[in-house]
């Protein structure tokens, strides 16, 4: 199965590229390491489409391209968020750290909004192609999981808005628990999205 199926080849590619990217990020900030990490990350984002539903569409080039963009945007938004929250919460007791973190989060919020919009648009395209009808959203296993994923994305966006407009500005005045709670909740929503995406990939399409 590993060597004779598209799923297996995709898994091998993901494993190799993930190892390369990990070593490259570990060797940063050298310029060559950043270039290697960037290339490996982009190629890694292509592998889910090549071993998933996108490659089987009537317009596979468009499907694979948009699915790759979807994965990259999701990583920029939810992946970066997870790293920032995981690294920042243990050191929020220091005032200088909170100020630096606030500056990072203000910049990241703008990037996250753009990435979230891209995730939404490319996700809606994939849903339109794969689901086929409104009825399939609540009458098929694929549709059920897709609806749950969409709900999780909405929750993540709302939590992100709370962080951006409320929790982050309060960091400079020492309101650490608010950010720790809302940031952790947003990361939990992100992990739920990843989990539902993994389940969704394994579900047969409604039109199959």
Based on CA atoms alone, the radius of gyration comes out at 19 Å
Low-pLDDT residue spans:
none
Spatial separation of the terminal alpha carbons: 21 Å
- Helix residue percentage: over 70%
Largest sheet: none
Describe the structure.
- Helices cover 79% and strands 0% of the residues.
- It has 208 residues and is mainly α.
- The chain folds into 2 domains: 1-51; 58-201.
- Helix 6 packs antiparallel against helix 7.
Observed structural traits:
single chain, 208 residues, mainly alpha, 2 domains, globular
Helices and strands, with pairings:
Layout: H1 6-27, H2 31-50, H3 60-88, H4 95-131, H5 136-139, H6 141-167, H7 176-201
Helix pairs in contact: 1-2, 2-3, 3-4, 3-7, 4-6, 6-7
């Amino acid at each position: 199965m590993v060597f004779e199926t598209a799923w297996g080849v995709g898994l091998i590619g993901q494993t190799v590229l993930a190892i390369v990217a990990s070593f490259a990020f570990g060797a940063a900030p050298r310029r060559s390491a950043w270039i290697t990490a960037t290339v490996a990350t982009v190629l890694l984002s292509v592998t889910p489409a090549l071993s998933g539903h996108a490659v089987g569409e009537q317009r596979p080039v468009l499907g694979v391209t948009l699915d790759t963009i979807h994965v990259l945007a999701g990583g920029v938004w939810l992946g970066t968020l997870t790293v920032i929250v995981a690294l920042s919460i243990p050191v929020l007791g220091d005032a200088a750290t909170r100020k630096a973190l606030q500056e990072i989060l203000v910049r990241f919020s703008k990037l996250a909004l753009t990435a979230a919009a891209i995730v939404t648009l490319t996700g809606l395209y994939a849903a339109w192609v794969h689901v086929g009808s409104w009825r399939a959203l609540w009458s098929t296993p694929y549709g059920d999981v897709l609806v749950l994923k969409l709900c999780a994305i909405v929750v993540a966006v709302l939590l992100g808005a709370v962080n951006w407009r409320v929790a982050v500005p309060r960091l400079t005045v020492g309101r650490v628990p608010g950010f720790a709670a809302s940031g952790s909740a947003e990361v939990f929503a992100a992990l739920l999205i990843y989990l539902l995406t993994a389940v969704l990939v394994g579900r047969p399409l409604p039109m199959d």
